[in-house]
């Protein structure tokens, strides 16, 4: 986008936002847009609006998202998706990603640099590493979609029965995989009744790692991405297990969100210490900028209510 076009777009946004706020009988609060970004992805046009402060961001979004919602409707012939962020968040985001580059160099994790280059510069490597991505719960589909642009991805889902993979989650995964044309296999191995009580008692996140390890060895793949891992990364038998949510400090959208794993739900329902652990993880995600405060509050309330 040229400077002139960008300037015209910013002026249009100011005009539309003022009109929308006036139509909703909202205060004529001053705000500043410092930058806009237009990009095309998956046949959709995205508009990102960056404001100077969080207060400006709130003004553009409006109470309950009414202002930005009406803005999307007004500009639906130009943009499919409109997001709003404040410029401070963008600077922090870029600094965190650049800090990751040094961390990867110092810890023999150079293969993860490709993700950073994609996130910062939209750069896709000419030669893609083969990786396995576990698709099981929560943000896994969004992560899979991103990693599929950077690596040669083999998606794997553990189907140990409804106690691990509910039918609705399985259907959503299959529809997503089919729409993206991603290679995908199930690990069909029933979870024994003897194991379940122990997993529920000890907090189940991480148990699938050992099952996937054998598949990684079989396919001769060194790198496995999963969110079902206690910690940020582990190296076992030459296999690198990467917890994407812990290693990459980025905020993920909930467009293709999957529910909590049923084992995790049983775990926090049956044991208070597991409930506290999950809430601590959610609070940490909010503090580190991985989740919006409202999203974190919703998840915490869901856990508390059981």
UniProtKB/TrEMBL annotation:
It comes from the Archaea. This is Uncharacterized protein. It comes from Methanotorris formicicus Mc-S-70. The lineage of its organism: Archaea, Methanobacteriati, Methanobacteriota, Methanomada group, Methanococci.
């Amino acid at each position: 986008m040229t400077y002139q076009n960008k300037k015209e777009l910013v002026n249009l946004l100011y005009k539309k936002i003022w009109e929308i706020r006036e139509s909703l009988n909202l205060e004529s609060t001053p705000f500043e847009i410092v930058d806009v970004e237009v990009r095309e992805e998956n046949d959709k046009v995205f508009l990102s609006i960056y404001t100077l402060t969080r207060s400006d961001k709130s003004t553009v979004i409006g109470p309950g998202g009414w202002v930005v919602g009406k803005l999307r409707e007004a500009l639906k012939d130009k943009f499919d998706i409109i997001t709003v962020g404040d410029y401070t968040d963008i600077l922090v985001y870029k600094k965190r990603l650049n800090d990751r580059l040094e961390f990867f160099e110092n810890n023999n994790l150079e293969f993860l640099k490709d993700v950073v280059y994609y996130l910062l510069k939209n750069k896709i490597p000419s030669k893609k590493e083969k990786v396995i991505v576990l698709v099981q719960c929560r943000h896994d589909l969004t992560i899979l979609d991103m990693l599929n642009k950077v690596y040669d991805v083999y998606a794997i889902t553990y189907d140990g029965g409804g106690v691990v993979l509910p039918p609705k989650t399985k259907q959503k995964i299959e529809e997503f995989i089919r729409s993206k044309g991603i290679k995908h296999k199930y690990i069909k191995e029933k979870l024994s009744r003897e194991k379940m009580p122990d997993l529920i008692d000890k907090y189940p996140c991480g148990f699938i790692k050992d099952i996937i390890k054998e598949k990684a060895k079989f396919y001769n793949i060194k790198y496995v991405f999963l969110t079902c891992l206690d910690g940020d990364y582990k190296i076992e038998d030459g296999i690198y297990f990467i917890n994407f949510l812990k290693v990459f400090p980025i905020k993920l959208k909930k467009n293709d969100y999957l529910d909590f794993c049923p084992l995790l739900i049983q775990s926090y329902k049956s044991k208070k210490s597991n409930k506290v652990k999950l809430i601590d993880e959610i609070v940490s995600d909010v503090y580190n900028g991985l989740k919006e405060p409202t999203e974190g509050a919703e998840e915490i309330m869901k856990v508390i209510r059981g």
